Amino acid sequence: MSMTTTVRPGEPIQAALDEAGPGATILLAAGEYPGNVWIRHDGVTLRGEGAVLLPGPGLRPDVPKLHDAGEDVVSGVVACGVRDVTLDGLTVRGFSGAGVYAHSVTGLAVRDVTAVDNAVWGVYVREGDGCEVLRCRASGSQYGGVAVSFCGRGEALVEGNETFANAFGVFVDNSSGVRVLRNVSHGNAIGLLLLNQTYEGEPDGGVRDCLVAGNVVHGNDLASGGEDPGALGAAGPPISGVGIALIGTERVCVVDNDVHDNHPSGESVMGAAFVMGSSKGWGGDDAVANHILWNRVTGNTPLDYQLGVDLGLQTFAGNVAAKGEPGEAWGWRP
Fold it and tell me: Tens digit of pLDDT for each residue in 222-247?
């Protein structure tokens, strides 16, 4: 039988986690908790009841650092190399790394978490297996609100989240078998980005066999990219006004999404609200065998869709859009 421990403001979360051990449930009473948290045991549930984690004097220097970030970058809730971890009902605010950072975790569930104004990522899942991010709100991060990165065949589920004021609302980065369902993404530079791009020193890439369905992607009008290290989406190419982009993907099915009123406010390497393209120039692949079905892509500028792929290698049917490139494409109608 699992042990349940209640922690109240002023009491140390980390001590409760470490003492309770594997399989424990830690309940956080309403209030603010300065400092970060490292989940080091399997089967742990960390549940908030109006609890807010934020930077403060309780920051621990020994917590695993965010991948590819400096030693001074601190994340809020960190899990690494464990399994069957649940985060539920927390708010994680204002950390210099990620709000939630999970690396090499099997069976992760992040539910009803609010990740706001964390500098690099909101909820960042990397090299995991069997993760789900459900009903979260992620905003104010330099890169992704919700990101699933290098998860291979991790079969991740990203469902029912709201993402806004990030460079990328939802970012599927070199991960396959991901389901992105019924999210609302607005006020980012790009709402949903699925990217196959090989990085030096990183695991094998690829974005294959994903489902993107029932999402509402609107009003994405921020501008990201550039050389300023503090800029939104720094070091990346300029992106603005994009709803959904599939870059170098294979066997990805995009069904019944509503992509409307996305308008660029700056330069962008992508010229429409719905974009398909190759990543071969970045060590990735051409986009092949994707199915784009029954989506509504309307009211966007400068174009509703831009299909920089071999159209004969994709399937399009029942999509609604007013203007795009190419001007007449099978499976698209006004």
Answer: 999 988 888 999 989 999 999 999 99
Tens of pLDDT, residues 260-291: 999 999 999 999 999 999 999 878 899 999 99
Return mean pLDDT, the chain. Answer: 94
59: left (phi over 0), alpha (psi -120 to 50) or beta: beta
Residues 6 or more apart whose Cβ sits within 8 Å of residue 13: 7, 26, 28, 33, 35, 37, 46, 53
Residues 6 or more apart whose Cβ sits within 8 Å of residue 68? none
Q: How many CB atoms lie within 10 A of CB 217?
A: 31
What secondary structure does DSSP assign to 188-220, as a single string?
A: SSEEEEEE----TTSPP---BS-EEES-EEE--
Assign 117 to helix, strand or coil: coil
- pTM of model > 0.85: yes
293 pairs with which residues across the strands? 255, 317
- Cα–Cα distances in Å, from 24 out to 44, 48, 77, 117, 218? 5, 14, 16, 29, 40
DSSP string, 134-153: ES-EEES-SSEEEEEEEEET
Taking the CA atoms of residue 214, residue 215, residue 219 and residue 223 in that order, the dihedral angle to the nearest 10 degrees is -140
CB atoms within 10 A of CB 30: 11
Q: Residue ranges of the domains in the chain? A: 30-333
What is the DSSP pairing of strand 239-240 with strand 223-224? antiparallel
Neighbours of 229 (CB within 10 A): 8
Q: What is the mean pLDDT of residues 154-158?
A: 90
**Element holding 20 (H helix, E strand):** helix 13-20
Q: Can you give 298-315 as a three-state secondary structure string?
A: ECCCCCCEEECCCHHHCE
Identify the CATH number of the domain defined by range 30-333: 2.160.20
DSSP summary character for residue 66? P
**Angstrom distance (rounded) from CA 173 to CA 195:** 5
pLDDT in tens, 161-205: 999 999 999 999 999 999 999 999 999 999 999 999 877 777 778
